[in-house]
Each structure stands twice: as structure tokens, then as C-alpha cells.
Amino acid sequence: MSVFHWTEKSETALQAGGVIGPDERLPWGATTAMGVQHLIAMFGATVLAPILMGFDPNVAVLMSGVGTLIFFVMTGGKVPSYLGSSFAFIGVVIAASGYAGPGPNANMGVALGGIIACGLVYTLIGAVVQATGTGWIERFMPPVVTGAVVAVIGLNLASIPIKNMAPTGFDAWMQAITFVSVALVAVLTRGMVQRLLILMGLIVASVIYAVLTNGMGLGKPLDLSGVANAAWFGLPAFSSPVFSANAMLLIAPVAVILVAENLGHIKAVTAMTGKNLDQYMGRAFMGDGVATMVSASMGGTGVTTYAENIGVMAATKIYSTAVFLVAACMAVLLGFSPKFGALIQAIPLAVMGGVSIVVFGLIAVAGAKIWVDNKVDFGDNKNLLVAAITLVLGTGDFTLKFGGFALGGIGTATFGAIGLYALLNRKAG
How many Å from the N-terminal Cα to the C-terminal Cα in the chain? Predict the structure, then answer.
């Protein structure tokens, strides 16, 4: 069967709360609308990460689209995921390049070489998984572990919108208005409008923001001048890698964090769709690794499967890989169009923060749903302690340092959950 083949389902299927599986799709008009929603969901983080490292955001957006297309092809179009800029690289890139910000990173090439090395290690790990199978994963990652890891992804990200995307009291109120708008769309509407809850809530909140700021002078006005002045077409500022042994040794170990993220995401999607995607795990790792190498070779960031987009899937129950194909193509076009990039960047930070609160919360709840669906027994101290410790490690962003390498909250929680479960599950001799 062709990688580009999906069984078409009518939009009427949504009226009864139907689910659109990975190998299904809505009509192309509705699929495109869903693609826009996923594009918006990934945009904030995909643009923020390169800015923090001194990379070009337009290149990052372009390569997120290219990377997602690579991932789509290498997984045979079976795994619904979007690949965006990974935050796991920020610390080691800054350390390797000596970047002090703000503005362009003058030593970007050295960081790019290290990211390529990381992508190669990640690809090799994927090849091993593909060759040896995933049976060992089931032993080390039962539902109590996978549920905790998935929940941690959302909880770990929660501080980003709350601490970094509401600099004023007015912005905090706008975040509240935004997530209330999304909630009202989710509950009070039906059909396709309901499935586009993130996009529709964002539009409603942006209009309210414009009325309160531009009309009533309550906050920073919505500024669309950047959109008007931006060119319709323009080439991003590509950069070439420089291979330094020190930078490569520093950045390459980030591969273990990317494995942890991708593993958690695949488990989350498996739980949501009811389709076991473990058989594609090795190919997913390799797709992500190759995408990271291609991205860095052009001046982009390392990429990873995005929790933000998994949150959108959890809310819409539309898991069609066709949606991600459309979103990826849009991102490629966006990378070559400063005007469209300016339009999305014009979305108020507070509004984007409110949307992020919803998306990250949905990810956390998806983890809890794994526990419920699998009837995890928290009367068993083993399960109770694995879940409890994992949640706090991830939420508190517990970090372990190994020389110049740091394993952050999500990575520590993931490997901590696996290791702790294995330790506590040992049979008495």
C-alpha cells in the first residue's frame, strides 16, 4: 500500500465523536485546516528554541517541515508526529559555541557539527532497535512507567507559558481568556469547529486581545506592521557546519534525551489511537536522527517529535498522518515566506501562552489516561513510588550533570522511571 494512501472519512463521522486513525483522513479541505492548527501548535517552541541559541528562526521552521517529511517517509506514513526544534540542545549548544546572546550566534558552525554528530548517534540507536525488536521495551516500560513518562512531558513544559509568556498582569489575564476560549469552543461547538478548538480559540482570543489593547489601551497593542512590511518570498540564512571534536563530544550525548522524548511520544500516540506503533519505533528513531542531521547541515536546530502536536491530537482525536504531511509542506513554504512567518509571529505572546497551557495540560492528562485504561494498581507500592518519584522529577526539572553534559527533567524522569521500576520489580532470590 502506498505511503500516501489514506481511507477517506466524511466530516459527519466527527458529529458522533468519531476518531480519525493514522491511516485515515478527512476531506482535503478539513485536513488542511487541521494542518494549520498543528502548524500553530508547533510554531512557538520551534521559533523560540533557535532564538535562544542564536540560530535563524526561519531556517528552523523550514527544516522542521523538511524533517517531518523525512520522518513521514522513513516511518512509512504510519506514525503521526511533527518534528520541531528540540530544547534539549540549548544548554550544550550555548556551552559549545560560547553564545552569550542576543542576536546571531557567531560560532554557530561548531554547534551545527555537534548536532550532526548527535543525529548520527541517534540514527545508530534506531538501527539497533529496528534490528533487535521492541520486546525489551515492554519489559522495561509497563503502563505505570509509560503513563508517568507521558504525563511528565506535559508537566515539565508547564512552566514555559506560565513563567515566560506572561510578563505583565494583563498578559496573565489574557492567558486565562485564551484557555477559557479554547475550553468554550471544545464544549459548546460540534463537528469540525470543535475539532479545530485550538485554532478557533486562538482566533477568538486574538480578536479580544486586539479590542482590549488597540481599542482600549490596556496592554501592548497588536502590531501587524511586520506582516505588511515583510516580503512574500525570501531565502533563509543558511549556515554550514564545522566539525570540532570537543563540541561533538559535548553535544552527541543529547541523543539519549531525544530517545526518551520519542519513546514517550510513541507510547502516548499508541495509547490514544489504540494502534500498537512499537514496530515503527526503530524507524521513528532513525527518521528523527536523519532529520536532525539534515537540519543541522543547513543551519537548523536539532529536531524532535513534538509534545505540543500530540496534545492537539489528544484534543481533536484526529490522528491522520495526512494532517502532518500537510503541516510539513506548509512549514516548508513558511520557511521561504517572511510574510507568513511574520503573521504567525504577530500572534500575541500571551495568547500563544494560553494555548500552550491547554496543550501541555492535555499531554499530562493523556499520561493519566494510560493508567486508567490499563487499570494500574496504585495500591501496589512499586507502582505508587515509580509514578510519584517520576512525576516530581519531571515537573521539578530534576537535572543530573555528567561533566559538561546535563540530563534534564524529561530525560531524568524517563530513565529514572525505567531504572526504578526494574530495581523494584526484581524478584527475591
Answer: 50
